[in-house]
Amino acid sequence: MATSVTLSDVAREAGVSLATASRAINGSANRTVRADLRERVLAAAEKLRYTPDANAQAMARGRTTSLGLVVHDIADPYFSTIAAGVSRAADDADLQVTLASTQHRPEREVSLVRLLQRQRARAIVIAGGRYDDEPTNAAMRAALADYRESGGAVTLVGQPVLDVDTVVVDNAAGAAALARALHDRGYRRPAVLGGPEHHLTARERREAFMDAFAQAGSPVQPAHVVTGEFTHDGGEAAMRELWATGPDVDVVFAVNDVMALGALAACRDLGVGVPDDLALAGFDDIFTLRDVVPPLTTVRVPLEEVGALATQLALEEHTGAPRRASVATEVVLRASTPDRT
Amino acid sequence: MATSVTLSDVAREAGVSLATASRAINGSANRTVRADLRERVLAAAEKLRYTPDANAQAMARGRTTSLGLVVHDIADPYFSTIAAGVSRAADDADLQVTLASTQHRPEREVSLVRLLQRQRARAIVIAGGRYDDEPTNAAMRAALADYRESGGAVTLVGQPVLDVDTVVVDNAAGAAALARALHDRGYRRPAVLGGPEHHLTARERREAFMDAFAQAGSPVQPAHVVTGEFTHDGGEAAMRELWATGPDVDVVFAVNDVMALGALAACRDLGVGVPDDLALAGFDDIFTLRDVVPPLTTVRVPLEEVGALATQLALEEHTGAPRRASVATEVVLRASTPDRT
DNA sequence: TTGTACGCGTTATCAT
DNA sequence: ATGATAACGCGTACAA
């Protein structure tokens, strides 16, 4: 079975030394091998169907060619779009992507990082958002510090709370701009489907939105803020919970699009017309939105670029303090929040 | 920088031999190491923050712990859902998933397989559909034969045209059942957005649908079959093309949901009411459908299970002829194809 | 320019 | 039960 042809076989077949065969085949920096020998080696490799062993190369060279990507759920469009960006950038850098998924269990992140460290991944991109949970963050910090001491690079997508390079999405500015835009359109009784209470991205969006609306003179009533999971089901449940209180509300902001879609489903089910009875807005501008009726107002985050940027950042040589790459967001007003003025 | 602690360091620190340290740490089959020594070793490892090198282990053991997944575009919900299934199954088997994407260029598949072979991946799951393109298929067959001779296992999701284990989705039965169901609901003037002409999955669905409708007495008019890309944009373009001919049509079947969503977008844009002016159906039942209005009729394919099944199949010991695992599909009638009788 | 020989970190074989 | 030591497949000083 596992009868792999090795470089020694090729060398023997070509009648040269192992070293020459190695040089001829990887053709690295010092391309110092006579043309005819090179030909012989290549021919022998072809004939024997030689396939280099990346693991052995990694050992000998002291570095691998793989990059780790940590997500919560690859089926979630948010993560899969980021993954597409990571994949493209990794490809450009001739790196393999190792996909590590927590399967919705954030506490697994630490062990995934350890796994990627065992694999000696050159870099790790962590796409899952942080929580306001110091013990967990401390564990991650420790794991990442270990990893970085061993020579690995890390980029986080989210909040800069882990002492590593971070791609920071400007959630606060986006949410505030959205709030102002909605206020300008005449909305005065906002509600928020706020996601997990301790999820930092959710919190940033939630609080910035609330602050901006308050500043505009129409504070969100405490009863009109409901927390829940950062998922479709979570959004649906949150919307039902909100509606059950018979709230005096004219616009609902879900802190991400997936939740907004869940909320929309709830509205359909509850007989609440969007936007006639209620306006609705989300955040992220995932691709899926283009297939939804009514078109959903949201704040665009260039997810694929975020993934690519995070990857490039991780791959750049760099020492010193953790860097921050800021990504701007953009309010996209659509039919789900018509002008009421 | 890259100053990794090795097992030798641990052994020295614990005052035992390399061999003992190895046995103590991996605790493999022959767990023959005295308790106190084991403790010392573990303590030393902990103290030194030792992390095993998976590459070195792979070399020594002769097998890696990674599994390759080949897709066209991880951002496509079809692939990302399959990927979720693969990820879960791989996790259960303690394998890492290496994500290899063709970035929409099917001809890159061969080189991705070679890449995964270099990496000595234990198994490869290929999720992209096949084309009726013998030269390309021959190249893939050769690459996969090489890979399998070197000890790797392969499972294909799609058509059994590559001499490897294949998870076969029963496209024909599903499409035929859909056609009959539509006919039963009173539809008599069908059209087909048929995807790429030589894409086997597209073709199977297209032809089975057409055959079944013909058998029911209402053949699809040749002018009402339009080909195009297997994407959202492809579906949109195909719908526009179809509509431009002013066709006498009462139901449109798009050979996958992503295309159907594109078609739906075109309809919105063209002012064609679905389902009032035209009924619409797709295939796959991707998650996204639950957010679309009207709810789209489709044929369900259990994508996540398909991914998991493909992975399990690849991991089972097996010799002899390529196996076939058949996956049933199920017609799901929704509001986009109301009863016209 | 080519070849020899050592090292990469681990497992496994074989004595002890 | 434990310890030397030889693989594993390759890259690369160093020597020739």
UniProtKB/TrEMBL annotation, chains A, B:
One Gene Ontology term of the molecular function aspect:
transcription cis-regulatory region binding
Q: Name one Pfam family in it.
A: LacI
Q: Which UniProt keywords apply?
A: DNA-binding, Transcription, Transcription regulation
| InterPro entries reported in the protein's UniProt record | HTH_LacI, Lambda_DNA-bd_dom_sf, Peripla_BP/Lac1_sug-bd_dom, Peripla_BP_I
Name of the protein in question: LacI family transcriptional regulator
The record's annotation in CDD domains points to:
HTH_LacI, PBP1_LacI_sugar_binding-like
User: The HTH lacI-type domain covers which part of the protein?
Assistant: 5-61
